[in-house]
Write a structure and sequence with these properties.
The protein has helices spanning about 1-5, 10-15, 20-45, 45-50, 65-70, 120-125, 135-140, 170-175, 210-220, 235-285, 290-325, 340-370, 375-385, and strands at about 55, 75-90, 95-105, 115, 130-135, 150, 155-165, 180, 200-205, 230. By secondary structure, it is α+β, with helices and mostly antiparallel strands. The chain has two domains: about 1-45 and about 240-385, no CATH class; about 75-205, no CATH class.
Length: about 375
């Protein structure tokens, strides 16, 4: 009966169902992409830090701290990072503020240190007055591999262009481009003078099965007054997970508001549709249909609107989600692989169907109050009007 009754207004009803499409699409795209991000974090957690444990201090480590760190099993690498000006002789001594990172050891232990040419990290590890420069800086100032830049009082030969390093994203590089030099050459630049805001770091990867969290707790207790910072893979995952949770909650609220407004549109369409169908409902009541049966006929039509809008919205949301990884490429410190999160798709479609059903109920209540006498009254009014 619901299908036959909708013959005269199917197109109008389908158009009304489009009002919830954007809301459902937003919920599906946001939920699915959130699932993609969480999966990427779980799969690439170690590459986010580049090691199992990182210890950082604003001053050079004391002999006691150095001895404790040297006593840990596994491979280690050290780094000193600070902000400084780079001078480009080939560009009329132009300058640019950048983050200088002086490395010693095999960092990163996880992930890829990607440069052009590919052997630049090996040249950096070998030592000497060499540097790896951010690719964007090389393009901006016309620097080529083999040319020199000046850091502090010393000149360094550029041996490669940096493409990617674990833990950093393109967004970070835009704010503060990076340049890498060997740790052994940092003192000669005279950049570590009084007042320099340097960050001293030690990267550790355990090869004996030690628990990084347990080692971190022991170090915190032993050097509680040293103002040291510690970070493990699990902590990095937890921090990123919390940040994603906050962003997801905000965007989901935006999507729900869009869905809520779409529900108002469905309610308005159902209200107009029911007003036009009151004479039909009255005739059905005269033929013996109960108020429950009449109500069910138009409830099925209202739920059909929600089903059509939810299906279209879910499809649109999946299409939007397919394009999101390309949009955020380079903005995140890890790669995101696309896959359809069916749970998020079902949740978004279910939310659309539920909202549409709830908003359709109020105008549908008028059907239960239609009296069989309405059929006679309508015909009498038409007779007198004629």
């Amino acid at each position: 009966m619901a299908w036959r009754d909708s013959r005269a207004s199917r197109r109008r009803l389908v158009v009304a169902s489009l009002s919830i499409v954007l809301g459902v699409a937003a919920l599906v795209a946001i939920g699915s992409f959130n699932a993609n991000l969480r999966s990427a974090i779980d799969d690439q957690a170690k590459t986010l830090l580049g090691a199992d444990l990182r210890v950082q201090g604003r001053a050079e480590f004391t002999p006691e701290v150095k001895a404790a760190l040297d006593g840990l099993s596994g491979q280690q690498a050290s780094e000193v990072a600070l902000s400084t000006m780079i001078v480009f002789p080939q560009a009329d001594n132009a300058t640019r503020l950048a983050t200088l990172r002086a490395l010693a050891g095999g960092y990163p232990f996880y992930g890829v240190f990607e440069t052009v040419p590919a052997d630049a990290p090996q040249q950096l590890a070998a030592g000497g007055r060499v540097a790896i420069l951010e690719a964007t800086l090389m393009a901006q100032f016309g620097v080529e591999v083999g040319q020199e830049i000046k850091l502090g009082t010393q000149f360094f030969t550029v041996v490669g262009a940096l493409r990617q390093i674990p833990g950093d994203s393109a967004a970070v590089a835009m704010l503060s481009p990076r340049v890498f030099i060997p740790r052994s050459e940092l003192e000669d630049t005279e950049l570590l003078g009084p007042g320099s805001l340097a960050r001293h770091r030690r990267y550790i990867v355990f090869d004996d099965g030690s628990d990084p969290l347990q080692v971190e707790r022991e170090l915190r207790e032993k050097f509680a007054g040293q103002n040291l910072g510690y970070e493990t893979v699990e902590e990095r995952k937890r921090e990123l997970g919390q940040a994603l949770k906050n962003v997801y909650a905000f965007l989901s609220l935006v999507g729900f508001v869009a869905l809520f407004l779409g529900g108002i549109g469905v309610a308005s369409a159902i209200h107009v549709h029911i007003r036009q169908k009151i004479p039909t409902v009255a005739v059905l009541r005269c033929l013996g249909a109960s108020a429950r049966t009449s109500f069910s006929v138009y409830l099925v039509q209202g739920m059909a609107l929600g089903l059509i809008g939810s299906i279209l919205g879910a499809g649109l949301g999946v299409l939007v989600q397919m394009g999101l990884p390309a949009v955020v490429m380079g903005l995140l410190p890890f790669d995101v692989d696309f896959f359809i999160a069916w749970r998020s798709v079902l949740q978004g479609a279910g939310a659309g169907l539920l909202v549409c059903g709830l908003f359709a109920l109020l105008p549908l209540l008028a059907v239960r109050r239609v009296s069989p006498l309405m059929a006679i009254r309508v015909h009498l009014m038409r007779y007198f009007l004629v």
